[in-house]
Each structure stands twice: as structure tokens, then as C-alpha cells.
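Translate structure to sequence.
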């Protein structure tokens, strides 16, 4: 290589180095801005189980493009405001779910006794929860034959489109204003006629809500969200409006409903009287006492008032929630929940719904469970907690 060639070679290296430096600075700035976006997202949506804020940034020359989706419009506005001081053109391609500009039927009602809610839109995906007949939901988006929905406890999951009746706001208002009944027995049937030997329309579980059309011969005639009709024995239902406005969440009532679940099989993701996991059991018991709790044990542990168990269990009251798990980096990692019954007994779903004891001298004491006892929270009497909502106060009902 002669001197002239070497000179041009050095110039080329310098030019290439300049390009790499520009790209490095650009990538560094993108990374910094993305970190800022992620921080804002985590403040508005601290847990992806109850909200979505997935925003991605792409910088191209003098343009910043924001793509993604969120269930929180305030989070979107905060992110746009944070990036507004950049000396670049900002293109907003963020979708707020549900996208009501293109989908007017973004509301729905569960139309089966129990529907399965999965982590991903696939039958092989993990069962994360369930929802009962007549539960109002928000349709966040669709994917093939699946719907991404949000239930009244804010939980987000996928379910089959065939299990939900889609509605617009007017149709949902009509349902909210309609006369309805709630099924009070743990399980039962919706009959074709008042002659119960002639067949059934479908099955029912505790907490099923249906529109009432009329009464006849000791039966209530009801209509399901999908149009099916049938008859239920009158003594097994209660007027829904009366129920939600008069139900008393007391220690005695919580323990009574909890005991009525005894022997139900454990089901991961189960939250109905067909089968329950630990937190689904707790959630179902409290729903039948007029309160909507968060879905998972780790979410339930964030709400309610703290009960001091540092010096023993004398401060516990019936109906309190007991949380179990492990400590990781000084923080509680909750994996199990139970309901305290009094006299050192607690009821939980572990294999099946059963009663265990905090007393090591009792036969039903479980040592491995007690070695993981972390904390206790009081639900009854807690007012103003966003994770504990009366059915009568929930806007969807």
C-alpha cells in the first residue's frame, strides 16, 4: 500500500468511526428514553396481571415513533409529556385498550356457569382464573377465536369468544337496569320447564347472575346473556339488587360460606364452586359476602389492614386472611392464602378445601405450612381500599 492509498484508508477509518459513534450515541439515547418509558409504565401499571402498558420506542433520524398498547390512558399521556421536550418529531402510535373508536361492542357478559381464563390465547396455556355466569367484563382485544378480557377485579386474561356475549354500552346499560337474580346454592341446574324431569338448559354455580323474566309455580323464569331461558327453584335465588344492597360481610357469614366449600377439590386457577385454588377460594367466599377481592394471593396480600402476629395470634379475628410463602431479599413472596376461622383454626384450599390449625398440638397442624407463615390482613370493615370493593359500589354492576 503506497502513501496515497494509506491516506485514503485512514480517512475511511475515520469516516466509519464517525458513523459508529453517531449510531452508538443514538442507541444510547434510545436506551435512556426507553428506560424512562418503562419507569413511567411501572408507576401506572405496577403489575401486568391487572393492567397493560407495553410501549416501545424507535428513533429514526429526527423522528421518534412510539408503538404499543396500554389500558391506562393517563400512562400514555405521561409518557408523551415526558418525551415532548425532545428536539425530534414525536409520532404517537400507542393504542389505548379497549380501542372504542373501532370497536363499539367492547363490553360483555359471561354466558356459561364457569368459563376458563388463560394466560395466553391457547387451550394448552396455563389456567389462571375463572369467571361465573353473568359477570360483566371489558373486551380489550381479539385474537382469532379468543378474547382478552378484564374482569371486575381488574384481572386480565384470555378466554374463548364463544363464552362471552359482546355488548355495546347501551346494551350493557339495559342489562344493569334489568331485574336480575343471583344463585345462592353452591351448584345446581337451570331447568327447561317447571317439570324438572324433562331436562335442563345448563348448570349453575354460586354467584351466577341472571335476568329475571317472571315467576311461576315456585320457580323463577330467567334469561341468560346468550338468549337461553330456563327455570330455577325460587328458594335457591335472591333478587340481585336486594342481595348486593343488604348482604352483610360479617365474621360469622364469611366463616359460614367458607365452611360450605369444605371438600371441594383443589384446581389451579379455579375460582368457582366446581373447584378452587387457594386465592380463588378466598375470592369466591368473599364475593358471596358482597366483596370483590383481587385474584391472586400475592395481590390480595397488598390490601386490607395489617394484623400484628409478631407476638402470637391473639390479634386475629375470624375472616382475617393469612398469607404464606417465603422471604426473598427481605420482601415477602406470597404463594398461599387462607381464611382464619377462630380458635387457631384456618380454612384453605390445599389438595381440597380443608381446615387446619395454627396449634402445633393439634392433629390438623401442618408444620411446613406454618414455617412459611408471613402475615395477616383484615378484610372485614376495611373501607376505601381500592383492592376491596363492594359489589353494590362496583360501577360494572
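Result:
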Amino acid at each position: 500500500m503506497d502513501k496515497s492509498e494509506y491516506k485514503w484508508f485512514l480517512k475511511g477509518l475515520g469516516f466509519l468511526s464517525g458513523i459508529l459513534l453517531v449510531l452508538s450515541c443514538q442507541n444510547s439515547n434510545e436506551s435512556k428514553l426507553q428506560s424512562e418509558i418503562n419507569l413511567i409504565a411501572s408507576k401506572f401499571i405496577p403489575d401486568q396481571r391487572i393492567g397493560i402498558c407495553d410501549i416501545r420506542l424507535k428513533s429514526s433520524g429526527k423522528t421518534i415513533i412510539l408503538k404499543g398498547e396500554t389500558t391506562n390512558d393517563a400512562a400514555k399521556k405521561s409518557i408523551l409529556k415526558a418525551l415532548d421536550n425532545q428536539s425530534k418529531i414525536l409520532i404517537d402510535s400507542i393504542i389505548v385498550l379497549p380501542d372504542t373508536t373501532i370497536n363499539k361492542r367492547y363490553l360483555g357478559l359471561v354466558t356459561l356457569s364457569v368459563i376458563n381464563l388463560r394466560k395466553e390465547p391457547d387451550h394448552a396455556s396455563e389456567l389462571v382464573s375463572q369467571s361465573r355466569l353473568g359477570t360483566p367484563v371489558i373486551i380489550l382485544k381479539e385474537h382469532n377465536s379468543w378474547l382478552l378480557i378484564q374482569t371486575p377485579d381488574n384481572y386480565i386474561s384470555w378466554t374463548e369468544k364463544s363464552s362471552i356475549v359482546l355488548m355495546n354500552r347501551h346494551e350493557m346499560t339495559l342489562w344493569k337496569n334489568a331485574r336480575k337474580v343471583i344463585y345462592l346454592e353452591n351448584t345446581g341446574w337451570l331447568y327447561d320447564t317447571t317439570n324438572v324431569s324433562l331436562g335442563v338448559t345448563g348448570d349453575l354455580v354460586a354467584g351466577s347472575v341472571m335476568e329475571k323474566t317472571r315467576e311461576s309455580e315456585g320457580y323463577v323464569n330467567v334469561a341468560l346473556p346468550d338468549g337461553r331461558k330456563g327455570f330455577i327453584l325460587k328458594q335457591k335465588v335472591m333478587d340481585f339488587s336486594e342481595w348486593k344492597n343488604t348482604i352483610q360481610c360479617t365474621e360469622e357469614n364469611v366463616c359460614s360460606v367458607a365452611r360450605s366449600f369444605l371438600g371441594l377439590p383443589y384446581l389451579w386457577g379455579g375460582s368457582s364452586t366446581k373447584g378452587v385454588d387457594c386465592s380463588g377460594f378466598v375470592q369466591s367466599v368473599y364475593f358471596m359476602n358482597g366483596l370483590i377481592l383481587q385474584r391472586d394471593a400475592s395481590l390480595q396480600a397488598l390490601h386490607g389492614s395489617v394484623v400484628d402476629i409478631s407476638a402470637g395470634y391473639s390479634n386475629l379475628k375470624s375472616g382475617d386472611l393469612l398469607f404464606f410463602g417465603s422471604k426473598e431479599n427481605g420482601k415477602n413472596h406470597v404463594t398461599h392464602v387462607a381464611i382464619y376461622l377462630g380458635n387457631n383454626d384456618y380454612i384453605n384450599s390445599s389438595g381440597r378445601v380443608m381446615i387446619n390449625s395454627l396449634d402445633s398440638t393439634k392433629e390438623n397442624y401442618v408444620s411446613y405450612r406454618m414455617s412459611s407463615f408471613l402475615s395477616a390482613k383484615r378484610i372485614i370493615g376495611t373501607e376505601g381500599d381500592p383492592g376491596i370493593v363492594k359489589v353494590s359500589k362496583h360501577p360494572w354492576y
